[in-house]
Write a structure and sequence with these properties.
By secondary structure, this protein is α/β, with parallel strands linked by helices. It has two domains: 2-29 and 281-409, Beta Barrel (Lyase, Ornithine Decarboxylase, Chain A, domain 1), CATH 2.40.37.10; 98-275, Alanine racemase (TIM Barrel, Alpha-Beta Barrel). The chain has helices spanning 16-23, 32-46, 61-69, 79-88, 104-113, 122-135, 173-182, 203-221, 247-263, 277-280, 312-316, 405-409; strands spanning 2-5, 8-11, 14-15, 27-31, 50-54, 73-76, 95-97, 116-119, 139-146, 168-169, 186-192, 228-230, 270-273, 284-295, 299-303, 322-324, 334-339, 348-355, 363-366, 387-392, 395-400. Strands 4, 14, 15, 16, 17, 18, 19, 20 and 21 form a nine-stranded mixed beta sheet that branches. Strands 5-6-7-8-9-11-12-13 form an eight-stranded parallel barrel, surrounded by six helices. A three-stranded antiparallel beta sheet has the order 1-2-3. A hairpin with an 8-residue loop joins strand 17 and strand 18 (348-355). The structure holds ligand LLP. Keywords: Amino-acid biosynthesis, Decarboxylase, Lyase, Lysine biosynthesis, Pyridoxal phosphate. GO terms for molecular function: diaminopimelate decarboxylase activity; pyridoxal phosphate binding. Specifically catalyzes the decarboxylation of meso-diaminopimelate (meso-DAP) to L-lysine. Its cofactor is pyridoxal 5'-phosphate.
Length: 419
């Protein structure tokens, strides 16, 4: 879907320069065809499970609507994400409200919408029970269990370690369910877990699901009837290769565990998964313009997007493939480091990459930017956020307008005495 035609990057059938003419740079560009392809891949391999889209990866409403229409549920991590998910049209029966630190206001909002909750602590359980009782509602909940699993990934995105802030330790989880059975207005119907993100090995997921079934068995003995086991997201993609996730490999590792496990349970819970990255990362590129090329101790290519728009390299030392969009497919000639416009030396998008000769006015394309790209952007250094575009065949639409200076001041107030 990202092809070179006469040395120029095309997204589906659109010449990237047409998009740049319409929106300027930087700009995030998504291929609808790739998105639909990813959805189809999940349907093919995980047709036996329920799919929830992890909204945190990319909360653009147009993309969310495609997932909602395809029958996905949604994993949301804040009242704001819940609001967006409902607006996008996700079926609220399959929206799971996650979060390790929900405010009372967020809980009240969630209870009113009727979605299910993943409960991260006993404190939260009491709060939900109180708020739901006062509103005359019953909330279906799962507890998030901390499974004490150490997957191979960046430490900042491993979430199921004993020492991580998420979930209730497995030793204490039964006490939590016992309490939930006693309290009014909460009905425990599921178990939730998430071990981390960008995990490419299948074995930590297998270990996780096995642990979840052990827990589920004991829960049934306690009288909990389970509707779902949600094992979270985290399937990693190939950032160094084609940006795809080997969804089939994860599915075939997990299916036998699920089938064996569920056969031993009376309530036959569904398996829920919450992928984010593996659905959206490879669908989207960030196109950024070269402001200057500097030959110093290193060859620096300074572009107009930095960690304000794509935080992953600075935050996790993440690798994203880059290329020169207007010399696409040409042989690499020189080694360059692509840096952004932010006032910190950590603002490096790509280190030591062999690229065709780069000059001022060229365009750099950063691949696999659809997950945790725009979603983690900021206005740091007084930079308005850029536009987002959705390509569909030979046409494209702006799906988020770029910000202007007005957006930098829209919520600021100068007190009278400072005027
Ligand atoms: N479910 C829960 C409860 C999660 O916390 C997450 C991600 C997901 C699902 C989706 O995981 P995925 O399939 O996308 O791996 N900003 C980081 C990633 C943070 C992931 C946090 N949780 C990055 O750019 O690598």
């Amino acid at each position: 879907m990202f092809e070179a035609r006469n040395g120029v990057l095309h997204i589906e059938d659109v010449d990237f320069r047409e998009i740049v003419r319409a929106t300027g740079t930087p700009v995030y560009v998504t291929s609808r065809m790739l998105l639909e392809e990813n959805i189809q891949t999940y349907r093919t391999h995980f047709g036996w499970a329920r799919l929830l889209y992890a909204v945190k990866a990319n909360n653009n409403l147009a993309l969310m609507r495609i997932f909602a229409r395809a029958g996905f549920g949604a994993d949301v991590f804040s009242a704001g994400e819940l609001y967006l998910a409902l607006l996008a049209g996700f079926d609220r029966n399959y929206v799971l409200f996650n979060g390790n630190s929900k405010s009372d206001e967020e809980i009240e909002f969630g209870v009113r919408t009727g979605v299910r909750f993943s409960v991260d602590s006993i404190d939260e359980l009491y709060t939900i029970s109180e708020i739901a009782s006062s509103l005359g509602r019953t909330v279906r909940i799962a507890f998030r269990v901390n499974p004490d699993i150490s997957p191979e990934t960046h430490p900042k995105i491993a979430t199921g370690l004993r020492t991580s802030k998420f979930g209730i330790p497995s030793e204490e989880i039964f006490e939590a369910y016992r309490l939930a059975l006693e309290l009014p207005a909460v009905e425990p119907v599921g178990v939730h877990c998430h071990i981390g993100s960008q995990i490419t090995d299948t074995s930590p997921f297998v270990e996780e699901l096995e642990k979840m079934f052990e827990i589920a068995k004991r829960l049934e003995e306690m009288g909990v009837s389970l509707e779902f086991l949600d094992m979270g997201g985290g399937f990693g993609i190939d950032y160094e290769g084609d940006g795809r996730a080997e969804v089939g490999r994860f599915a075939s590792a997990l299916r036998p565990i699920y089938e064996r496990g569920v056969a031993e349970l009376k309530s036959r819970p569904e398996l829920w998964i919450e992928p984010g990255r593996s659905l959206v990362a490879n669908t989207t590129v960030l196109i950024t313009k070269v402001n200057s090329v500097k030959r110093a101790y290193k060859n620096f290519v300074a572009v107009d997007a930095g960690f304000n728009l794509l935080l992953r390299p600075a935050m996790y030392d993440a690798y994203h493939r880059v290329a020169v969009a207007n010399k696409f497919g040409l042989e690499g000639e020189e080694v360059y480091t692509v840096v952004g416009p932010i006032c910190e030396s950590g603002d490096v998008l790509a280190k030591d990459r062999k690229l065709p000769r780069v000059e001022k006015g060229d365009y750099i394309v950063v691949f696999d930017a659809g997950a945790y790209g725009f979603a983690m952007s900021s206005q740091y250094n007084g930079r308005p956020r850029c536009a987002e575009v959705l390509v569909d065949g030979s046409s494209f639409r702006v799906i988020r307008e770029k910000e202007g200076f007005g957006d930098l001041i829209s919520k600021q107030v100068i007190p009278e005495d400072l005027l």
